[in-house]
């Protein structure tokens, strides 16, 4: 298995889960101060993660929660963001230009800003009210925040039970996904590493990740053309350009929007001979109860996508770290 | 000019503007009953129009307003939709399956449903509390609702002045756009009617329309591959797959997010030799004051896109009404 270190992965995920006591201390305090709404502020990959957090909450929550694109916030503002807003951000570098500008503007509203930063000492850290510093695992961090907020709002009664399973079994279950998916991923990469266009379809808590995978991985890191489309929207346009040879991948998860992705998966074989269905149901996830599988579907897909990336990168001899234009040219 | 009937267009737009007294009567009543939030419910093209309505409101409004995809609502619900919610929908056929199911579910919450229906006697009309029946002009209808809501909330002080200009000058100003854009549109169609992929970039109140133009026009009606991308997001992935020959069109409007599209327009010539910038500033819009031009930018683009469509349709001898799969196969 290329680029796979089981111990490192386990330790990374378990370390992220251990942030929960720190996160809960922060969130419990914010909850006690009567926040009014929750804003997930991001751009690019973090905008996508923000979409996932909102989709994740929508299944259970009556709280007002929304995504805000950072660059759009800088020019348009958002009058729903006030001193009673909790803003959650995440950044690897802590220096993405749109994020720094957006958080500066947000800070003037008096909103409470919780930042997850891979690098603790960065421009963004100085602007946040709370900083949690730990590398990677963005989605896990976001979901832990969302889950605590819902728990405190009385919307997640079995929170303790769920996190008991997560703490005990999540990391190992996800690592097993990587092992099981590896040969599939290798074949997938061999078949699709030169696609002139690849369509990715996703729904629910996987939609943000689908958007991100097409844009932040295939386009940005592999320099491969791709388009993401919400499963619900697939039938309102995109289907008409799919033919026998068009590469289409559908993510079928186990959250409440499973049926929307299933609908695409069932329809596709009639018109397309080059589709791939990736279904979380094909993975065991030992120690995770049936009713929680949907909540962690995005992590299953993420692990499978990582495997695909490792092989596409190698076959194409295209290191994923290089950029043609980003941070090479000014914009 | 192909497929262009000035008198018919003028009468269509002016007729839509005349709906305003009917719309205001409805909205004033809903406002008096203390609604809590505003949901724009749609799928495909109407989902896109909903995005535009929300972007339009965000410039001015502190009201809680959001987009809800109809198919997603059917499976996931949305606990922010309650009996104090105003839901706005629009439908040409009045029978789109996801819309009918979603509105049925929404009706059980006791939300107030305002429906714009091209066909008055349709399944959706029976489910709505208020029906306004008039063909086309969806965006204009949505903006009139949004503007009245903002006016009543004290967020649109010069509402009367704006609509005086709209009533007097809007339709003619837009028709003049069509005439001025026609030769450009013909050349554009001649150059791009066979593109293997076309990228459309938009921002602000044009983002929804950009999404829709790529998906509901190029993909669905021309069977041409295309991808839409938010101007703010362009730099976070998509730029890496753009090269000398990649067709990219950027819509540069005059709303508050103009700078985001401008940034793409200024960047592109460095890496791409096949781009097109469509800028509303190139059009006169006689009788529309400078401060209102941004509000109607989407209508300028819509008219230009219509011109392009007329020529692509003819050159490709591909009638825009035919569908390869939609409503031909079950899904």
Automatic annotation (TrEMBL), chains A, B:
Keywords: Carbohydrate metabolism, Hydrolase. The keyword Hydrolase applies. Its EC number is 3.5.-.-. Pfam families: SIS. It is an enzyme of class 3 (hydrolase). Residues 26-156 form the SIS domain. Homooctamer. Catalyzes the conversion of a range of fructosamine 6-phosphates to glucose 6-phosphate and a free amino acid. This is Fructosamine deglycase. The lineage of its organism: Bacteria, Bacillati, Bacillota, Bacilli, Lactobacillales.
